[in-house]
Specification:
eight-stranded mixed β-sheet, six-stranded mixed β-sheet, 32% helix, 17 helices, alpha+beta, 690 residues, Nucleotidyltransferase, domain 5
Length: 690
């Protein structure tokens, strides 16, 4: 029996999904922030124990280990990345600080700019200039580069980003500068804009390259430690890493631009959601993932969660690489409840995995959402938590909420209930902002809830949003880990070429796509995939004259490697036709009398691999199971004796009326008043209005 393992590291828990034939085995253990690879190996050892194998024998039977990580995200959140310098074209020293004049809240005059990854003293300029057509206007001042390196060395930089004007057209100056920096600042991590984001505009490329340099050493060193530990343990294959684009690829590919793993953990959950939603007949989904630290929201429309390249703001920094759209709030089980100027607030500060909520008994002193769920009786302190890995305690919890109650003028239980109300309101409001920004009515969507805490809030959020159906997969507690096993090995890259569509040089277009094909072939070969396994979508980026942003669309879908026969004399006319169709679908209008321009070519290449099976249907006769026990709990209408069901005892066809609590191994599903839960043929849950 061969295994496939999906892993997702969160701020509080590291999640595992083991695919054994068609069977899925779930596991969670606390993350190890001091060395996250240690937590990964601990979890793999536990899976080996479950299978009755030694770690070496288990890893030897693993045909794939796929990993989503928040290392890059945590680096930006905690601002503890590499000491980073920037070398850029003379005259463009402050471009990274202008940010196009962008401000997240234009009405908040006190909102500070984000902390500079490269403060002005570490931003160096050199004389050089390449024109928009690739011609060299001013040769690279190599001595100027060496002088910049000497000044950066004095500031003990650990990483250097290089971003020159129009390097995406002609990268010669960046290549030479990188050679010099590598010689002058030994052991520094060095990256260049044409490698990280080879397209216009300039600020996008510079910002993305700077962030890549900042997180790069943390990401690559972590992956190197993990690969070494896996190899020592007996794993013989390539480690596959989840990307923000929704695909996976080898560590060697990620090393070229570690920024690709930013938000890769949440992306796994979205890809898994699309897979399950389509299988169950729900193509339009609101996906909500409430874990220990954050609450992630995303949309799947018509069964797709496309990756978009462009104006992606993450943790207040622009990241231009393709990313599955995920909006994040500081609202998780570890979010801290506190009083601010007489008002109760929840988050964004989190207790994380260490020390964690008070109820973990690991030294936490600040009340959190998880503590509130214990106070409300939604979570139990009687049995083992997270699959028996540890047990929750009420010691110190009531006292912490009483301190809040003393400030607010009521008791501890009322304080816990207010914490529950506030965090729920925060999440619902976040969903409204996300859907309204896309012109989507939540009422038209089905909610798919996952994460360790998502199912505990899902139905009450759906009530607030006017959503009438909620899907909760059996594997929801480790759904992002499971999603990594759904994701296909993927390479999504682009090259810039700015030209009116009817004036495109066909040889130039062929050369750019040929270059992307060659790269895809090389990296897929390293991952042991053959060209005949690859599916390629040849895409164009286009816009109307004067537009800042481009739209991407398939020019040739399901193409073959190096087969560019579709580029013929009708290329320009066909490109304009397809772009107008895409623009109409996105913005509901076209500019009939304007000639759109190509801004770049893009290649999305992937290989289809085995995915966990997702089933649908309600063929079993409806039956009402007996609760395992009752517990005093407050599900929004005061404390009552509430039936509690064990998820392991439920079978397809079971229907559970509200109010009720369903305890699964790693999560708790709450059936709020006015709702009911049904178990489908796959053992997954569907919550519907009663």
């Amino acid at each position: 029996m061969n295994y496939r393992v999906g892993i997702d590291i969160g701020g509080t828990f590291t999640d595992f999904a083991l695919l054994k034939g068609t069977e899925v085995i779930l596991h969670k253990n606390l993350s190890t922030p001091e060395d996250r690879s240690a937590g990964v190996m601990e979890g793999l050892a536990k899976l080996a124990e479950i299978e009755g194998l030694s770690l070496g024998d288990f890893l030897g039977k693993c045909e794939a280990i796929v990993h989503g990580t928040t290392v890059a995200d945590n680096t930006l959140i905690e601002m503890n990345g590499a000491v980073t310098g920037l070398i850029t074209t003379d005259g463009f020293r402050d471009e990274i600080e202008y940010r196009r004049g962008f401000k997240e809240d234009i009405w908040d005059v006190r909102l500070p700019a984000p902390k500079q990854i490269t403060p002005r003293r570490r931003r160096m300029t050199v004389k050089e200039r390449i024109l928009h057509d690739g011609a060299v206007h001013i040769p690279l001042d190599e001595e100027g580069v060496r002088e910049a390196c000497r000044r950066l060395r004095l500031q003990n930089v650990e990483a250097v980003a290089i971003s020159f004007l129009f390097s995406f057209v002609n990268p010669d100056h960046e290549r030479r500068a990188k050679e010099i920096v590598t010689q002058e600042i030994q052991n520094a991590y060095v990256c260049a804009g044409h490698e990280v984001l080879p397209r216009a505009p300039e600020f996008d490329r510079t910002s993305t390259t700077v962030v890549n340099a900042y997180v790069g050493p943390r990401v690559t060193s972590y992956l190197e430690r993990l690969v070494a530990r896996l190899a020592e343990g007996g794993y013989k294959n390539q480690l596959m890493v989840m990307q923000a684009s929704g695909g996976v690829m080898t560590k060697e590919y990620i090393d070229g631009a570690p920024i690709r793993v930013l938000a890769s953990g949440p992306a796994g959950g979205v890809i898994g959601s699309a897979h399950v939603g389509v299988a169950k007949g729900h193509k339009d989904l609101l996906c909500v993932d409430m874990g220990g630290t954050s609450y992630d929201m995303s949309l799947v429309i018509d069964g797709q969660a496309p990756a978009e390249a462009g104006w992606n703001m993450h943790h207040r920094y622009l990241i231009g690489v393709p990313m599955v759209k995920v909006e994040t709030l500081g609202a998780g089980g570890g979010s801290v409840c506190h009083v601010n100027n007489g008002a109760l607030e929840v988050g964004p500060k989190s207790a994380g995995a260490d020390p964690g909520p008070i109820c973990y008994g690991a030294g936490g002193t600040e009340p959190t959402v998880t503590d509130a769920l214990v106070m409300l009786g939604i979570l139990s302190t009687d049995e083992g938590f997270a699959g028996g890995s540890f047990q929750l305690t009420r010691d110190g919890v009531e006292e912490a909420f009483q301190k809040i109650g003393d400030e607010m003028g009521y008791g501890a239980e009322e304080a816990a209930f207010d914490c529950w109300r506030v965090v729920n309101a925060n999440m619902s409001q976040g969903v409204r902002r996300t859907t309204a920004g896309k012109g989507i009515d939540p009422h038209d969507l089905t909610m798919l809830a996952y994460g360790g805490n998502g199912p505990a809030f899902a139905a009450i959020q759906a009530e607030d949003l006017g959503i009438e159906k909620v899907l909760v997969p059996k594997a929801s507690p480790t759904f992002s880990a499971l999603g990594t096993l759904v994701a296909n090995p993927t390479i999504d890259e682009e090259r810039s070429y700015i030209v009116p569509a009817n004036e495109a040089e066909l040889d130039k277009v062929r050369a750019l796509w040929e270059e992307l094909c060659t790269r895809a072939e090389r990296f897929f070969k390293n991952a042991h995939f053959t060209p005949d396994q690859m599916v390629l979508n040849y895409q164009l980026n286009m816009r109307y004259p004067g537009q800042n942003f481009s739209l991407s669309f398939d020019f040739k879908a399901d193409g073959k490697l190096h087969d560019l026969s579709f580029i013929d004399e009708n290329f320009g006319a066909r490109a304009m036709e397809l772009f107008n169709q895409r623009h109409m679908a996105e913005y509901n209008h076209i500019r009939e009398h304007e000639t759109p321009e190509i801004s770049g070519v893009r290649l999305a290449a992937y290989v289809e691999t085995t995915s966990p099976e997702a089933k649908a249907g309600f063929s079993a006769a409806t039956s009402a199971p007996k609760p395992a026990k009752t517990r005093r709990a407050n599900l929004g209408q005061g404390f009552k004796d509430t039936p509690v069901y064990s998820g392991g005892d439920l079978v397809p066809g079971n229907e559970i009326a509200a109010p009720a609590i369903i305890e699964e191994t790693f999560t708790t599903i709450v059936v709020y008043p006015g709702w009911k839960a049904r178990v489908d043929d796959a053992g997954d849950y569907e919550l519907v209005k009663a």
